[in-house]
Amino acid sequence: MPPKKKARVSKTSAKSGKIDDIERTSSAGRKRKAAAPVEKTGEGSQSAGSAIFTCWLMKSEPESRFENGIDVKFGIEDLKALPDQTGCWDGVRNYQARNFMRQMKEGQQAFFYHSNCKEPGIAGIMRIVKEAYVDHTQFDKKDVHYDASSKPDNPKWSMVDVQFQRMMKRFLPLSELKKYHLQHGANGGPLKDMALFTRARLSVQPLTAEEFDFILSLEDKEPL
User: Fold this and answer.
1) What's the pTM value of the predicted model, to 2 decimals?
2) Which residue ranges does the record assign to the EVE domain (predicted)?
């Protein structure tokens, strides 16, 4: 997507709400956002058990933080404010996160996760509206995510377009999700292997349908 036709969305990642240096993301338009780190693993969106993932969790920073003089803040309200409530998820500079985005299909859903903030957690739901294509910010020397090692004839980085769907009926904080993760790890349950806890530094994370549906069901329940 040409940068001037749609505002670029930025992402963040965090481990328990903290941002790392490995992966950073930017938002276009008038704001830039930071993305966070992710651990490196193989290509594709498959788990160790070769399960194909069709749901996702993507992290972004909802609070102001300046990087090279640019505010990288980008929360779900910023996505809502974009034209058509749509933006590109640019600035991912971690191979595993990039590989997961390359596996995303149009129409799939992703949780918008607020990271590196006072209360990290899941704020809402968005939809993948354009599958992976070249992230133009890697070639922009003025962009905080410029990568001098990436060449136009062999680009390293990709992005997808996302569209806001809705806010969660209630914000699902990391602290609550962690309680379920610990319970399910001890007694069995859908969140026992959730990437948010087993691969916490990953800013673009895969979810099984079971994980996604269970998390979605929590918005209708009282906080744990």
Assistant:
1) 0.80
2) 55-217
